[in-house]
Amino acid sequence: MGRVYNFSAGPSMLPMEVLEQAAAEMTDYKGSGMSVMEMSHRSPVYDAIIKETEADFRELMNIPDNYKVLFLQGGASTQFAAIPLNLMKNGKADYVISGQFSGKAYKEAKKYGEAVCIASSEDKTFSYIPEITPDMVSEDADYVHICYNNTIFGTKFPEVPNVGDKVLVADMSSCITSEPVDVTKFGVIYAGAQKNMAPAGLTVVIIREDLLGNAREDIPTMLDYKIMADNDSMYNTPPCYAIYVAGLVYKWALKNGGLTAMKERNEKKAALLYDFLDSSKLFKATAEKRSRSMMNVCFVTGDADLDKKFCKEAAEAGFVNLKGHRSVGGMRASIYNAMPTEGVEKLVAFMKEFEKNN
Ligand SMILES: *Cc1c(COP(=O)(O)O)cnc(C)c1O
């Protein structure tokens, strides 16, 4: 089997051009006589890589100068602890629980202070995004935490919620760089890179500078944003190779029209799938219309055995990793930036054929 259409939720597809460039540079990066995996993170060659990666990311996301970009490890899950440890000055924070990951973030925050659940969509198995208004926010909350795109349930905030003058913290693991976002509306944005940006091992944090320096005294050094920022993400060895690949992905996105073009393409791909699902007699989308994710499209047939048959036959036809998250079942097509439109068109054609035969 050659290259497949890989609908994995993460780690997920990377652009073919990026893989080819990484392969071409694998054993001898730009005449250095070694691969990026083998070089010192303190070498001038690597220093140029990380600086260029940050500059390209800033350009792509239009990140203002008063925000720091941190390249960290530990996945988005480590940030569930780092956020309260760094930001809970008054020991209180609000959480919106719109899926499994935001629930985990809430549970972790409870270890370090008072975490308040101000809204949840658990009543309907997280099939929608709860409405947030400024009056719901706790007066003395240090921040409000949301998960902007819920990878497992295929929902996304239709717009940035209004939390008044509170600091908004967003887990954007599965939607970062999928469309333009106004960074100034957030205090912190964080993301595991393995969904839409890079291989696993890299976690990106974007933080407004005035939020640095408020960490608890007993915070582990490696989780202290200020220490990481003061050391340009080089307090210790950063995830060198993943940062290098992220840099290639940012250049690819910039070359292909930046986030405005990414959004246009992603909307088109998502519409292909949702329009078919809405007209299908066999398949049904599980997320409520106004909360639908452009990145993770969840659907079911209503019959677990038929779901299983669909995933099996799809995989045989070259459409792999369509099985839904182990906690929810059904199907999920993750269609990140690197998934070509053609992959979605072919999947829809396959689904139509499957519907006819079943
Ligand atoms: C995948 C994911 C996580 C967990 O990321 P890790 O890097 O595995 O810790 C957290 N939040 C969201 C929204 C995700 O999609």
The chain-level mean pLDDT equals 97
> Based on DSSP secondary structure assignment, what is the total number of beta strands?
14
How far apart, in Å, are the first and last alpha carbons? 26 Å
**Quaternary structure of the protein:** single chain
The H-and-E topology, N to C, reads as: EHHEHEHEEEEEEEHHHEEHEEH
Bound molecules: pyridoxal-5'-phosphate
Rg (CA only): 21 Å
Strand content: 15-25%
The largest sheet has its strands arranged as 2-10-9-8-5-3-4
Profile the largest sheet: 7 strands, mixed
Q: Spans of 5+ residues with little confidence (pLDDT < 50)?
A: none
Topology:
Elements: E1 5-6, H1 16-24, H2 44-61, E2 67-72, H3 75-87, E3 92-97, H4 100-110, E4 114-120, E5 144-147, E6 149-150, E7 155-156, E8 168-171, E9 188-192, E10 203-208, H5 225-230, H6 240-255, H7 258-279, E11 284-285, E12 296-300, H8 304-316, E13 319-320, E14 331-334, H9 341-357
Parallel strand pairs: 1-13, 3-4, 3-5, 5-8, 8-9
Antiparallel strand pairs: 2-10, 6-7, 9-10, 11-12, 12-14
Bound molecules: pyridoxal-5'-phosphate.
Notes on the protein architecture:
There is one protein chain. This protein has helices spanning 16-24, 44-61, 75-87, 100-110, 225-230, 240-255, 258-279, 304-316, 341-357, and strands at residues 5-6, 67-72, 92-97, 114-120, 144-147, 149-150, 155-156, 168-171, 188-192, 203-208, 284-285, 296-300, 319-320, 331-334. With 358 residues, it is an alpha/beta fold. β3, α4 and β4 form a beta-alpha-beta unit. α1 (16-24) packs across α6, α2 packs across α6 (240-255) and α3 crosses α4. The two termini are 26 Å apart. The relative contact order is 0.16. Pyridoxal-5'-phosphate binds at residues 10, 75-77, 101, 147, 151, 171, 173-174, 192, 195.
